Every structure is written in structure tokens, then in C-alpha cells.
Amino acid sequence: MPGDKSISHRALIIGSLAVGNTKISGLLESEDVMATVSALRKLGVNISRDTNNCWLVSGVGVGGFKEPSEILDLGNAGTAARLLMGAISGCPITAFLTGDSSLCSRPMARVTEPLMLMGAEMFPRSKNYLPLGIRGQIIPMPIEYDLKVPSAQVKSALLLCGLSSPGKVIIHESIQSRDHTERMLKQFGNDITTELDSKTGASKITLTGQTELVAANINVPGDFSSAAFLIAAALMIPDSEVTIKNVGVNRLRVGLLDTLLEMGAKISLFPKKNENAEPVADISVCYSKLSGILVPADRSPLMIDEYPILAVIASMAKGKTEMRGLGELRLKESDRISATTELLRSSGVRVEEHEDGLTVHGSNNPIKGGTIIPTHLDHRIGMAAIVLGLSSKSGVTIDDISPISTSFPGFVELMQKLGADIYSAQE
Ligand code: S3P
Fold this sequence. Notes:
- The strands form six sheets. The chain has a four-stranded mixed sheet with strand order 2-3-1-12, covered by helices on one side. Strands 4-5-7-6 form a four-stranded mixed sheet.
- The chain folds into two domains: 5-219, Alpha-beta prism (UDP-n-acetylglucosamine1-carboxyvinyl-transferase, Chain); 224-417, UDP-n-acetylglucosamine1-carboxyvinyl-transferase, Chain.
- α9 (307-314) links the parallel β16 and β17.
- The model has no long low-confidence stretch (mean pLDDT 96).
- It is globular and about 60 Å long.
- It has twelve helices and 21 strands.
- By secondary structure, it is α/β, with parallel strands linked by helices.
- 52% of the residues are buried.
- The chain binds shikimate-3-phosphate.
- Shikimate-3-phosphate (S3P) binds next to α5.
- Shikimate-3-phosphate is lined by residues 6, 79, 151-153, 156, 177-178, 304-305, 328.
């Protein structure tokens, strides 16, 4: 599997704020992650790739970014934009950020508002959206903050800014979101702690600012969110059997596995020994007859990126699968509730769209297909459409596969190697 996108962005950004040289192996070399590399270079960080495909980051220390002379263009990368907004807010510089049309239509107030409480000044062209200018603070205020949305991106932005604060930054989450930033900050020597309320699932994260980060060696595990598309194809296509090696299986990322097991999937995990801050496993999957279920709404932060592909899987299961608590899905690279509804409906699947979710009525049989699918600049819609096409009677045509390289370069070629019939519609 290509490296985990969330962990790759964090390794580059946290490595940049450390003292010393951080070595990263397994970095995801996708467009989103390269947007982070390019922005960090403009912020004065020396980043190079050696002959063993490892990336070397010469950290500038907490608060040490230099003022960029150029605009930072984050392309399609929401994680890069939001995490860098936090890191820049803790430096005494002014920077301007922009992105592609998808990123410029995604809400930023969730990040800018708490960062302003810490002292950053924000100059959005239009309230809530990129492009925007940021003037960071040499000494941001340490704050105690209740996250308004269950977002690891917002949490991480505040923690990265808090690294420069003279005191403790405390964040409360009502439902725990992915904790890659916390794990990695610990690996770089910060004494960050998380207190989990096992009854409510809420968590309290405490970070002490103005302590140095010490460079580390990071091995980025394979991306579970990318593996999800292979898992789906293996489950849906008769006689398939696939083993996916070295996949990150952080419990706050793998809600899809619990869901698929409840649906009757034949999936086995083989945990690997490793010295990473993140658990890793090989995952074996076989074609399985699945049944629809009600997916618990409180599982959504643990599988937020996997709903489009779950909806595709559910379309071939027996009975209905109901997914709720997905309001955040409307604010991703595209409105994924409506894009997924469009993908399924146009392929002959019965699906109900709700404000906060989807109900998919599984056919227990291959679906019709035969349509042209718009990807809406969304890599996960593109990959979900390809998997749907493979398991449909007439196949599908996808209008634009280029967004897939934001997270999974080589996806089409890998699927072709596994036997998928994918070809250019121009041929
Ligand atoms: C991510 C967090 C999630 C996820 C995104 C990556 C991260 O977004 O959807 O693909 O790396 O922190 P939110 O934090 O906005 O839920």
C-alpha cells in the first residue's frame, strides 16, 4: 500500500518544526503530500529525497518558519491547508494560502476561529474560505477549547500552533478523532497526554508548548483508507482473495473493518511487529456474501473517509444498509453524500439520500452500471466508481481519473495487475 496520507503530511510538518534531521521512509508520494513539501520549502525548510526513497527534513525548530515570498498553493489537500494554518499561526510571519476549486469551497472557519482565539490574524478573501492570509504570533495564547466538530484536522491545527504557546493547550473532543498528531508529537519528544472517558468516548488532550521537538525516524505505514478500495473489490468480485501488506490499523481509523465484519465479510488481520508509533498489520480478504446493517452513527469519525466505498459494497449486499451521522461528509473534497447517491443511483442502485447519511438497498446481485460518473474533483469518488464498475454488469465510465493521484498514485495500474479491466475511453 502507498503510505498513509494523514501520517505523511504530519511527518513532514512535525519534522519541519523539530530540531535536527528527520528521516521519513514510506512517505506517500502523491499530489496532496507533494503540496505540503512545496509549501514547507517556501516556508524555509530544507527537504530532500535520498536514493533509498527516504525523505530528509531539516527542521527549523518550533516557531521557526520563514516568511514565504510566494503564495502557498495546497491544491486539493484539506489536511495540508488546515494543519499548515495551525503551524503558521505559531510563527511570527505572514503567509497567503490558496488551493483548487474544491479546496477553496471547503469551510475554514472551524480552524480560523480557534486560531484567532490564540492570537493569529486571518484575512480571508471571503469569510470561511481560502484564499486567505495569516499573520501568526510569536507567542500564541495557550487555550482550552471544546472542538465544535469531530475533526482531527482542526485538533491538529490547534496542537501545532500550541507548540509555540507558553503554557498548556487543552482540547476537548466529544468523540475521539484520529490521533496521528498526538502519537507523532510524543515520538518527537513532546509530553502530550490524552485522557479518555471510557463511558462517553470523550477525550481531553493536553499539550505543553514551548518545548523543543527532537528529530525522529518515521516509517509511514500503508494507508488503510486506500486499502479500503482493494478490500471492497476483493469482497465484491467472486473468487477474489487478496492480502494487503503493511497497512496502518490505528483503531481510530479502521471503523470500516468492524462494519464489514458485522456484514459478514471474510477478513483476517495479521498484526506486524514494528517500532512505529502506529500499529501495522497485513490484511487478507476473500470474496464474501454480505448482509446490510445499521451502521452506528457514533462510528462515523472512525471511518469518515470510507463511506463512499461502503455504500458501493452495500449495494451488492443482501438487504438495506443505513448510514447516519455523516453531516461532515458533505464538506469533504466534494459533497460525498450527494456524489455517492449520484454514483449509485445512476448505476441502477436504490438509494435514499438523507441530510446526514444514506440508506442503500442492496440487490444481492451485480449492479447494472453502464453510465458516465462525474468525480467532482474527488479522489475517493473516482476510486469508488472504479470498484463499482468492476463489479457491475456493464461497467462504468469515469469522467476524470486524475484526482485519484492526490491520494493513491498507481491505483489504476495496481487494479489492472489484479486483473481489473480498466482502459482509457479514448482508445
Ligand atoms: C484527516 C482527517 C479527516 C479526514 C481527512 C484526513 C486528517 O478530516 O476526512 O481525509 O489527516 O486529519 P476531518 O478532520 O476534517 O474530519
